[in-house]
Amino acid sequence: MKTRYHITASFLLLFAASALPCLAQVEGEHYETIAKHRVASIQETETAAHRDLRMKWWREARFGMFIHWGLYSIPAGTWDGKQIPGIGEWIMNNASIPVDDYKTLASQFNPTAFGAHDIVALAKSAGMKYIVITSKHHDGFAMFDSKADRFNIVAATPFHRDPIRELAEECRKQGIKLGFYYSQDQDWTAPGGAAYKTGNHDLPNHHWDPKQDGDFANYLHTKAIPQLKELLTNYGEFPVVIWFDTPTSDMTPELAGEIVALLNQHPNLIWNNRLGGGYKGDTETPEQFIPAQGYPGRDWEACMTMNDTWGYKSYDMNFKSTETLLRNLIDIASKGGNYLLNIGPDSKGNVPPTEIERLHEVGKWLAVNGEAVYGTHATLFGGEAGGFSTTEKDDEGKPKFIPTWNWRSTTDANKIYIELFTWPDGSFHLEKVPRQVTGAYLLADKSRKPLKITKAASGIDVALPGQALDPIATVLVLNTK
Ligand code: FHN
Questions:
Q1: Largest CA distance in the chain
Q2: CA 55, CA 42: separation in Å to the nearest integer?
Q3: Cα(347)–Cα(65) distance, rounded to whole angstroms?
Q4: Are 132 and 241 in contact, with CB atoms under 8 Å apart?
Q5: What is the pTM of this model?
Q6: How confident is the model at residue 262, as a pLDDT?
Q7: Which atom of ligand 1 lies nearest, measured to the CA of 285?
Q8: What is the per-residue pLDDT across 267-281, written as a single tens digit (0 to 9) for each?
Q9: Ligand 1 proximity of 245 Cβ (cutoff 6 Å)
Q10: Cα separation of 251 and 185, whole Å?
Q11: Mean pLDDT of the 417-440 span
Q12: Residue to probe by mutation, ligand 1, list 241, 273, 287, most atoms within 8 Å of CB
């Protein structure tokens, strides 16, 4: 909600920021030259209390739905009869499809099976608390009604509907939050938009069609910024999140600052660390991996696919098991992060059945055990997640983190939750007890039968029944003082 307090505060902060360029957080030797022009973002100027208020719902949510949906769902991984390697939404780039050829897809896009109600209900049944949808991906096609650029779902397709508007309406009705992914930097169909060479982020201007050539600042001023304005003003209480992606060196601090000035007008908005121009945003965004120890002191959100693609690919059946998805969620929560789990609807608007099935299964677990996830804090232990190898190295040459999957822990003011993946024989031993434990029970046990706690030589033993209550994760609750 945009309260008077927040609006007033933001204007004051903006004023203070422009008067005090020393608040800028650009590191290194360019600081002096950049700082003169740099707009300070709200994260750099707000009080800790305002920040906590702004991030409150997001920190409590823990689990969100990412939706990658666009024109790329029509080829669905196949172009000119060939299966194109790589992620589905990158097909234009990976197959070097000329701009005009790609744009013809719009006339075929008629996703009549799309139902905002069902998608929002699916997210809710999975226990997700927010949705982030691609409003424009790197292909430049807007999935919303845009007056700034005709290449959009309302003006250029036979569908003529605005799914972002329909989702916003449903999210409002069903009480779930909505955010917009927006590819601010890469745009493969707008002249001047950046284009990475696949797998090589150092080549931002990898154009395969002269129609892509142009001036980046001009692209930003004529398309990206006007579209961001539309997204920020046309959908009522949403978006609550803007999810930027793949910044290149084209996004200078000055250009990014123009976007920041716009974002600053929405003082409750949350935005990620992928704007570019040296802005850190609100959230770290590890992609397809869970950091060994989270990001202490930073909010973070791990985004992941269920199979190997974000945008729909008809032949990608490499779906993760429900066990993996649930363990990921619990692992992330135990490290203080959020899990943004992707679905990729097809060109008719249908969500792949395996994705629906997995989400329902995760939701079933959360319906019983959600208390151990939502609104909780990171583990008070740490060692249970695994350790760094003394011999193996990761891709960066640093000691490799080897996870172990016996248990994880999340924390509340008066409770410690232990999510047990492997069921101990007879009792669970806790070596170090950081708080006084006054009782124990299993979260899935409706009768809350107290479990016997015995003081061990070091730590405590909690007596457990012979069998786990859930084959994937059974939650042991310790009441604490
Ligand atoms: O290039 C994109 C990719 O298509 C997808 O949108 C992911 C989601 O985080 N982000 C980029 C790669 O980092």
A1: 74
A2: 13
A3: 19
A4: yes
A5: 0.92
A6: 98
A7: 9
A8: 999 999 999 999 999
A9: yes
A10: 7
A11: 96
A12: 287
